[in-house]
From TrEMBL:
The lineage of its organism: Bacteria, Pseudomonadati, Pseudomonadota, Gammaproteobacteria, Oceanospirillales. It comes from Billgrantia pellis. This is GNAT family N-acetyltransferase. GO terms for molecular function: acyltransferase activity, transferring groups other than amino-acyl groups. Keywords: Acyltransferase, Transferase. Residues 7-159 form the N-acetyltransferase domain. InterPro entries: Acyl_CoA_acyltransferase (IPR016181), Bact_Acetyltransf (IPR050832), GNAT_dom (IPR000182). Pfam families: Acetyltransf_7 (PF13508). CDD domains: NAT_SF. Coiled coil: none annotated.
Amino acid sequence: MSKQDPIHIVRLSPDSDHVPTVASWTYAEWGHLSPGYTAESWCEAFRRECGDAGVPSVFVAMEGDQPVGTAALMARDMHSRPELTPWLASVFVLPEWRGQGIASRLVHRVEAEAADCGVSLFYLFTPDQQALYRRLGWQDHEEVRYRGEAVTVMTRQLGA
Ligand SMILES: CC(C)(COP(=O)(O)OP(=O)(O)OC[C@H]1O[C@@H](n2cnc3c(N)ncnc32)[C@H](O)[C@@H]1OP(=O)(O)O)[C@@H](O)C(=O)NCCC(=O)NCCS
């Protein structure tokens, strides 16, 4: 990161004042896919994903003291594939901050966290961002239908 770079990536701790803000982004983006949740119960579930290290962990891209993006390392994400773990999940950047490499930096931070806790292979699924993840070294694993849409499960090999 250069001295001019206003963005820094930090861990989101469960007691952070930013948890409700970041949870509200992911609820707005993906909450409709999990109809059992309210905004409040989603926020509390999101808070439980904010661990101290390893799985689970949530990271945020900060511009000064304002969060502008997030990504998570989670044990479970795709309920139809409980045998696959862990997952890169909840990758989101505020619209006005897109196209500047922030999601790429968040993905790299999650990858570093996974590698540090001994993960050699982990997973994501995406309906439409395959190109972004391929550029970051992820490989297509399988095409499946999940919650009514076509998604690609992708894998990332870490370490040697
Ligand atoms: C998908 C998403 C996370 C991407 O965030 P982002 O910060 O814009 O991603 P990046 O900047 O790292 O990469 C996006 C593009 O910017 C380009 N880019 C990367 N670094 C750049 C830089 N320094 N300057 C200009 N462009 C850059 C990338 O090449 C990429 O190109 P593309 O538009 O052809 O794909 C964001 O659009 C988003 O939040 N979407 C809604 C939620 C979502 O779909 N999440 C993914 C779920 S799988």
